[in-house]
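Deliverable D4.2, example record:
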Amino acid sequence: MSNAWSWYVIALVALNIGGCAWLLWWTARRRPGDPKPEETSHVWDGNITEYNKPLPRWWINGFYLTIVFGIGYLVWYPGLGNFAGTSGWTSAREHDADKARHDRLLEETFGVYANQSFQALAADPTAMELGRSIFANTCAACHGSSAQGAAGYPDLTDATWNWGGEPEQILQTVLDGRQGIMPPLGSVLEGIGGDVAVTQAATYVRALRSEDIEATLRNDYMAARGKKYFDSLCVACHGPDGKGNQDLGAPDLTVRNTLYPNTLDSIRTTIIEGRHGVMPAHRDLLGETRGRLVAAYVWSLSNARGTDAASGQQ
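Output generated by the structure prediction step:
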């Protein structure tokens, strides 16, 4: 705050406090010639009379004490522009102290799970309840409360993983985030074969999810024509068989549970406009131990058999 604004605030506060004190003094005193309290001349129904009696002295003094308290409060705490107050109190220092106290409580709660294996965490009901709670607070907004995702947000309960479904890979995703980028190829394909080339490439991508791709290509002219575009533009990321590359986050195009709807229009949109999926990093928010707990919970959603086996070994 600039000095000019600081003095403006100080003057405004002083004016308000002084105005309140003056108004209290002015309205509380009686003056020569004022009518008696019972002589207001306001009478209804013959015997209902309005009085104008002053407040009791103890009440008036209570108001004055309130004003004195307000002045003392503004001296003790910062409330007068840039004046920091004699106590040295700041909201930032108060926030830091509260945060440190709660961080210690969190450390006591979660510290027992530090560096435990994912299998051990997944087999511990209390750890999984904590992981589920962390997921509900930080992940459910995108992936849903059931972790089954939505268009553009992966289903975490199946066996399809764009960046790998091993526990350490999931932990890296939680802590450091991911960015999956599908570049727009519409202008490239349209330059080669017009809009029909986009449709042919999309038809081939859709055909990759069929049970017999060779039979589909023999019977579907559009898909067969689209294969050459896929081979020239898409194999670098998705591979010659369309099974993707987890190192790049390139999805497996042969599975039916896809990140975006498995419709021709949706695939065309992906090819023409591209996609940019972002999983934000949570390292600063959660820390290593809480990140490990939620990663173990996510891993357990698609590895029920593994968690049961781990539980039986304990």
